[in-house]
Write a structure and sequence with these properties.
This protein folds into two domains: 100 residues, Pseudouridine synthase I, catalytic domain, N-terminal subdomain (Alpha-Beta Plaits); 150 residues, Pseudouridine synthase I, catalytic domain, C-terminal subdomain (Alpha-Beta Plaits). A hairpin with an 8-residue loop joins strand 2 and strand 3. The chain is built from five helices and ten strands; from the N terminus they run E-H-E-E-H-E-E-E-H-E-E-E-H-H-E. The two termini are 17 Å apart. By secondary structure, the chain is α+β, with helices and mostly antiparallel strands.
Length: 263
């Protein structure tokens, strides 16, 4: 078998998450990113067995700019030709950004050292159609989030090693809900001049629980609206709470930006 390490970008709007929903990916009732890529790989290798495994199983509607994955193929092909072949056959909302030779020992999830996510939101009186499927609209009379400094103060509460049980959904495969957040803050996004009032939560950690970033963003939105306090967030970080402090934020604003790993 031949192994490749790839960096992927995709727009998750029309996909029901990363993970394939069926072993027969050609018959998926709901399209997934993994299933769509596998279908193309099967065509490239003339329907021989092949696999792709990713570092992060993103949720339905979540986007990525730096997803890491390992591809296993039964035929020899250069990384350059594999990249070109995949991009020529994949739909326009999935792209292979980088492809290099790898080994059987490389396991994207286990080799991950840290992950960086951004959650994009637009503060404005009316939603901007340009960003409506990649950023959350936060109604505001100005082009600045309400209580921006309060949100940044809350971000600092998340930094460090904490038990994020109360800010995640249960996952029986997870041994512990303790994670370390290495960085967390709110930034103004100025990469899209046609959009005023775009901001993003930047969060970097050694790993994230199911829906964790979306629950953290949901808590920040509730805080900005005056529905919870900083003390409420602190309490939920200190104790296991079954009742959620806030609903989780919508998937469309979440972007997997970068995964730091090793071979």
């Amino acid at each position: 078998m031949y192994y490749f390490r790839v960096t992927l970008a995709y727009k998750g709007t029309h996909y029901f998450g990363w993970q394939a929903q069926s072993l027969d990916t050609f018959r998926e009732e709901r399209p997934t990113v993994e299933g769509t890529i596998l279908n193309v790989l099967k065509k490239i290798v003339n329907y021989q067995p092949c696999t792709i495994s990713a570092a992060s199983r993103t949720d339905g509607g979540v986007h990525a700019q730096g997803q890491q994955a390992r591809i296993t193929l039964p035929i020899a092909i250069s990384p350059e030709h594999l990249l070109l072949g995949l991009n020529s056959l994949l739909p326009a909302d999935i792209r292979v950004l980088k492809c290099t030779l790898s080994t059987k020992d490389y396991q994207p999830n286990r080799n991950s050292v840290s992950k960086e996510y951004h959650y994009y939101f637009v503060a404005s009186p009316v939603d901007n159609v340009v960003t409506s499927d990649i950023a959350l609209h936060v109604p505001s009379n100005s082009h600045e989030p309400d209580n921006l400094e309060l949100l940044r103060a809350a971000c600092q509460l998340f930094v460090g090693r904490h038990d994020f049980y109360s800010f995640s959904s249960r996952d029986k495969s997870v041994v512990t809900s303790v994670r370390e957040v290495l960085y967390c803050d709110i930034h103004h996004a100025n990469f899209m001049p046609m959009v005023d009032g775009m901001y993003y939560l930047k969060i970097v950690g050694d790993g994230f629980l199911k829906y964790m970033v979306r629950y953290l963003m949901g808590a920040l939105l509730h805080l900005a609206r005056g529905r919870i306090t900083l003390d409420d967030i602190s309490l939920y970080l200190q104790q296991h709470q079954e009742h959620k402090l806030s609903p989780r934020a919508k998937a469309k604003g979440l972007h997997l930006i970068h995964i730091e790993g090793s071979e």
